[in-house]
Design brief:
homodimer; mainly alpha; 73% helix
């Protein structure tokens, strides 16, 4: 595929939006756990992508498709920020992020747009096994990071709500391996 | 595949090493560009993975394989840090990182190890088209970030060496689209 000048500039604009995700801090840690300089959304997405790649292979899911879903799942936050549930209703958040994501995807070459829009919609509809797996991995990665912050000395009681909500979420789902790893994280009391 | 207790704990140890990459700062920006709190290696890997996914699809390379290579390409730095060429010779760096990477990969379930070891070796040998593409993407992502730091107001003269070395590298390679995007980054003078 040969790209015209304006397609190239649009693609560059897409990459800048991706790059900007490094500067968006995961706001839950700031507002609820008093961590002043927490991980970025890009940090979280990296770790979640690697974990998803490995676990998807172990349980025979489509790791390539899942990695793509993980990479884009929080990309809208590059334009709209990482809102807390207290700032904004989940319906409003969904609308704002959907609008941002459509704008972001429109910067890709025409032939790629439909696939990424489908992956984004699949993630949000949360009906397919792949989408459910990615939502579970989002929670699992959060538990892992919460535990790391606990090891670093941040107050346990300010991290517990994150661990509790993720534990409840993962416990209600069907991914046995994800559940077992979450248990191992919760049971483990020493660092690497 | 069913994992035994010790395999589960090894996998958790692998995930912690991945998670720790969020805390490793890209040292080049600190030492050469006086940026006190730069992106993490995880940030860089996230952005590079997304860019690689999109460009690999446009030029019909195997995006799944390439994404895996990108995710692991700097993972050894979680254990050994991001050394500058002045700290350590490139041969020594290669040895240290190879040893660390073998340790990291040994934490994966047996059935996955060989594949990731092959991908790691393929990246280092830098002979295949996929490996060459990933090395190019490493440079392209660095140029994009350098330009972002320039827009943020960091001194141009301290960022120029990164842009120059990456430009030289990419100019000598065969990926026309990567070269064109690098040109677009260098020519562009306004932010998103």
């Amino acid at each position: 595929m040969k790209l015209e000048k304006n397609q190239l500039l649009n693609l560059l604009s897409f990459f800048r939006i991706v790059c900007n995700l490094k500067t968006i801090k995961r706001s839950g840690w700031i507002h609820k756990s008093k961590i002043t300089s927490p991980e970025s959304v890009a940090d979280h997405s990296y770790s979640m992508c690697m974990m998803s790649m490995i676990l998807a292979e172990i349980i025979n899911l489509d790791s390539g498709h899942i990695m793509k879903m993980v990479l884009i799942h929080d990309l809208a936050e590059s334009l709209v920020g990482d809102h807390m549930p207290d700032d904004i209703s989940s319906e409003k958040k969904q609308l704002v992020e959907d609008k941002a994501m459509k704008k972001i995807i429109s910067k890709l070459p025409n032939s790629l747009r439909k696939n990424y829009l489908n992956i984004w919609n699949e993630y949000n509809d949360n009906i397919t096994v792949n989408a459910k797996f990615v939502h579970n991995m989002d929670k699992l990665e959060m538990v892992l990071q919460a535990k790391e912050y606990e090891f670093e000395g941040y107050p346990k009681e300010l991290l517990q709500p994150f661990i509790k909500s993720a534990t409840d979420y993962i416990s209600n789902e069907r991914f046995d391996l994800v559940f077992k790893i979450m248990q191992a994280i919760n049971d483990d009391s020493k660092r690497i």
